[in-house]
Amino acid sequence: MAAPHPESWIRVTPQGLYCEPGDFFVDPALPVARAVITHGHSDHARPGHDAVLATPETLAIMAARLGEGGPRSPQPLAYGQSVTQNGVRVTLVPAGHVLGSAQVVLDWQGSRLVVSGDYKREADPTCAPFEPVSCDVFVTEATFALPVFRHPPASGEVRRLLDSVSLFPDRAHLVGCYALGKCQRLIALLRQAGWDRPIHLHGAQASMCELYGRFGIALGELRPVPRPQKRGETVLPGEIVLAPPSAEASPWMRRLADPVTAVASGWMRVRQRAKARGVELPLIVSDHADWDDLLATIAEVGAPEVWVTHGREEALIHALAGRGVRGRALHLLGREEDEDAAPEPEPEPAEGASA
């Protein structure tokens, strides 16, 4: 008997992607009894679930970010290990997006579907690299699924940042970056590029850096941004400060010495967006696959059918049709790029933190 098509056992519901024989959801947008979570970003890891299966790192991130809203019954599953739920085998493999991010491999009666979550293919010293898994249906993101989005190597963008620091030694460099994943990746890339001085953090960034440290990701010396000693004074000329992107429009940045404003995001490829935000130094550093890597990944997994979610579905589906691959837009709700989220309130300065 032929294996059942995944369309017969995986369906889209108001809560999200539902595995019917296993009776669980993947990255549900609403609270559910059983969920498998791909990674800790807030548009995938929602509060209020009962039982949650995820990597140990993702569960730790959820506990730190959600507090009492975290899963009531967390179930850690390491990469490459499997559990079976009502006959459905669930395996988590690295997605290369952020610490603990996983693809969800679902096997049922000889049929295989892979939910990639968010992923990237470029090397990242702070998380395990993406592992392609052959499958019958591949569920892919499409955040940057337009040919204009071809990301340059992140190491070159970090070199541009360091060149600017050398060029403007009397100015602080304030880099807007999302607190989970992008911040830690930038720090690691700066260390690889030879920047061994302390890196200063907005208070919203510190807790995730500490969590990365607990999982063995060395980030070097990290310090909070000090308050000026006197009214009218500024701090940190010649230093690098990392903060949520929206912090650049807040009074908080006035303490910095004539800051060069930078944002690290795949969206910085769009010059109009950088200009509209007044970004002086746009850095094209993305934690998502670009156009070429999306197409290469889909070819590598060899799925004859691809389901596309959150992003530029139409462009990717059109491109896949020309390659003989059937595409389907899932139109899942609540999926969005999280890099422009408002910063959390900054805690009072403490002594230097390291991770």
Automatic annotation (TrEMBL):
<keyword id="KW-0436">Ligase</keyword>
<feature type="compositionally biased region" description="Acidic residues">
    <location>
        <begin position="336"/>
        <end position="349"/>
    </location>
</feature>
<feature type="domain" description="Metallo-beta-lactamase">
    <location>
        <begin position="30"/>
        <end position="142"/>
    </location>
</feature>
<dbReference type="InterPro" id="IPR050698">
    <property type="entry name" value="MBL"/>
</dbReference>
<dbReference type="InterPro" id="IPR036866">
    <property type="entry name" value="RibonucZ/Hydroxyglut_hydro"/>
</dbReference>
<dbReference type="Pfam" id="PF00753">
    <property type="entry name" value="Lactamase_B"/>
</dbReference>
<dbReference type="InterPro" id="IPR001279">
    <property type="entry name" value="Metallo-B-lactamas"/>
</dbReference>
<dbReference type="InterPro" id="IPR026360">
    <property type="entry name" value="Xnuc_lig_assoc"/>
</dbReference>
<dbReference type="GO" id="GO:0016874">
    <property type="term" value="F:ligase activity"/>
</dbReference>
<feature type="region of interest" description="Disordered">
    <location>
        <begin position="334"/>
        <end position="355"/>
    </location>
</feature>
<dbReference type="GO" id="GO:0004521">
    <property type="term" value="F:RNA endonuclease activity"/>
</dbReference>
<protein>
    <submittedName>
        <fullName>DNA ligase-associated DEXH box helicase</fullName>
    </submittedName>
</protein>
